[in-house]
Design a protein that fits this description.
CATH superfamily of chain A: MFS general substrate transporter like domains
Largest sheet of chain B: 7 strands, mixed
Order of helices and strands of chain A: HHHHHHH
Radius of gyration of chain B: 18 Å
Structural class of chain B: alpha/beta
Number of strands of chain B: 11
Largest sheet of chain A: none
CATH topology of chain A: Growth Hormone, Chain: A
Low-confidence stretches of chain B: none
Number of helices of chain A: 7
Number of domains of chain A: 1
CATH architecture of chain B: 3-Layer(aba) Sandwich
Number of strands of chain A: 0
Strand content of chain A: under 5%
Number of domains of chain B: 1
Strand content of chain B: 15-25%
Oligomer: heterodimer
Mean pLDDT of chain A: 93
Number of helices of chain B: 10
Radius of gyration of chain A: 17 Å
Mean pLDDT of chain B: 90
CATH class of chain B: Alpha Beta
Low-confidence stretches of chain A: none
CATH class of chain A: Mainly Alpha
Strand order of the largest sheet of chain B: 7-6-5-8-9-11-10
Distance between the termini of chain A: 16 Å
Chain lengths: ~200, ~290
């Protein structure tokens, strides 16, 4: 159950990040268009955020890591993504009026909306690797398994969101659904007992 | 199914030679041409995707019916002083408008610099003191212009990528912005597909923003809508007489357009309106009509 929960959190976090990234393009397009600059800005911010998250997650894993804390990381990512749903439109409206340039406007918009939740999401994988690894000999194998699950989740998030969810649901509905799943997975993680340290 | 594979093969055999190809930031751009015609395509062999063609022997002739229908907007607003065209293609529409309306201010917005270059190099498209091309996303341009005092009497929507119209240019919010950018009693002319899984969705979206509109259907579907009361057929007929000679010089009859000016509803009026929240355009157009 403990390991299953770790994989679930990692897999879902991967799904969540890619889902938000794809919806990000949809959110920005009405304000900045869909020129290559907009997509470049979104992808750049996500990559930067993930890289910072990996560093932070690795650091955090040094301080009495636990499944409980991993669940809190997931919940924090969802919490910091909530403004996208609640004030995203208004923020983009103000921002695109003040800074209509598709390059810098969309870069700033991506930073304000997506940097923090994506960075926190980036903490999940290295932190989960730490919880998985029992000894050095299996460290690479454990990391590989964990990254397989989280990146598979990313693939699923990309495919499902762009191929199916946008066909039936509104952008806000998809966002809300993803936040709800994050909350559920996070709560499950809090409730799951881990091995005693 | 078999027919669908035969047709492209037949077309491919009839395709004029490739004059130019380049990969732009957004799509592949191909120019095919011989002594008679020259075409702009976004897919190899022009199998699918946007085309713009000119007749090299009669460059003024409007080869595609959709461009003729788009000029049908002049039957509703005969002397627009300010025109906005979103989507350049080969420049057929702005060139025709410049010839018909020598003093109009024409602003063309095109996101792809390669298309702008190709229109200049291969299709003889020229800007002038009262005609500008802006290399920008169409929606970003509209939003930008709304913050100025600039308003247009005629707006033409003809933005396509290799699949269809980009999603953010199909939504109710965008059309509302376009409507706001129109001068009072201004006209919008939009080129869309006449049969696709999105047909009803697009139709209800235009209806929601503009109310009743003229639904010109042939190989394509052109929406002609107004910012004010929709001009009637009598007025369109009067304006057609005015443009009969000019349109004839371009290979079609103004009076032949009039029967296409229908306002009847031929779509599912319960279809979902396309909004910024819900606009799965490219998914629905990936499937067969």
């Amino acid at each position: 159950m403990y390991r299953a929960c770790l994989y679930l959190i990692a897999g879902w976090s991967g799904f969540f990040v890619m889902g938000i990234e794809l919806l990000g393009g949809r959110l920005l397009a009405p304000f900045f268009g869909s020129s290559i600059y907009v997509w470049g800005a979104i992808i750049a911010v996500f990559m930067l955020a993930l890289s910072l998250g990996y560093l932070a997650g690795g650091r955090a894993s040094l301080l009495s890591p636990s499944l409980r804390r991993l669940a809190l990381i997931l919940l924090a990512a969802a919490a910091t993504a909530t403004p996208v749903l609640l004030v995203g439109d208004r923020l983009l409206e103000r921002l695109s009026t003040a800074l209509p340039d598709p390059r810098f406007g969309s870069l700033l918009a991506s930073v304000l909306l997506f940097l923090v939740p994506t960075a926190i999401s980036g903490m999940v994988s290295p932190y989960a690797v730490r919880l998985l690894v029992a000894d050095r000999a299996s460290a690479g194998h454990d990391a590989g398994k964990l990254y397989f699950v989280s990146t598979f989740g990313s693939a699923a998030g990309t495919l499902l969101t762009s191929f199916y969810l946008v066909l039936y649901l509104e952008v806000d509905q998809i966002l809300l659904a993803m936040l709800a799943v994050s909350a559920a997975v996070g709560v499950l993680g809090l409730a799951t007992r881990g091995p005693t340290a | 199914m078999l027919l669908a594979t035969l047709v492209p093969v037949l077309q491919a055999r009839a395709q004029p030679p490739l004059l130019h190809s380049e990969r732009s930031l957004y799509r592949q751009v191909f120019v095919y041409g011989d002594n008679a015609t020259r075409c702009l395509c976004f897919t190899r062999e022009c199998r699918v995707g946007r085309q713009s063609c000119i007749d090299l022997k009669q460059p003024d002739r409007l080869m595609f019916e959709y461009t003729q229908m788009m000029l049908g907007s002049l039957l509703l607003i005969p002397e627009p002083r300010s025109i906005l065209i979103i989507g350049l293609g080969g420049g057929t529409l702005p060139r025709a408008l410049r010839a018909l309306l020598p003093n109009a201010e024409i602003d063309v917005v095109e996101i792809d610099p390669a298309v702008i270059r190709v229109a200049d190099q291969y299709f003889g498209y020229r800007v002038d003191a009262h005609q500008h091309v802006y290399e920008e996303d169409g929606r970003a341009y509209v939003r930008r212009m709304l913050r100025t005092l600039q308003r247009y009497q005629l707006i033409m929507l003809d933005a396509y990528d290799q699949q269809y119209i980009p999603e953010h240019l199909l939504t109710q919010e965008f059309l509302q912005q376009v409507r706001s950018l129109l001068a009072p009693n201004g006209i919008v002319a939009a080129n869309t597909f006449s049969s696709s899984r999105l047909y009803s969705n697009e139709s209800v979206t235009y209806r929601a923003v503009f109310g009743t509109f003229y639904n010109l259907k042939s190989a394509n579907r052109v929406v002609l809508a107004s910012n004010g009361p929709l001009p009637g057929i009598a007025e369109a007929t009067r304006n057609a007489a005015r443009y009969e000679a000019a349109f004839s010089a371009r290979g079609f009859k103004a009076s032949a357009l009039l029967p296409l000016f229908k306002t009847g509803v031929d779509w599912d009026s319960h279809a979902r309106v396309l909004t910024d929240q819900y606009s799965p355009a490219n998914l629905l157009n990936g499937a067969e009509p």
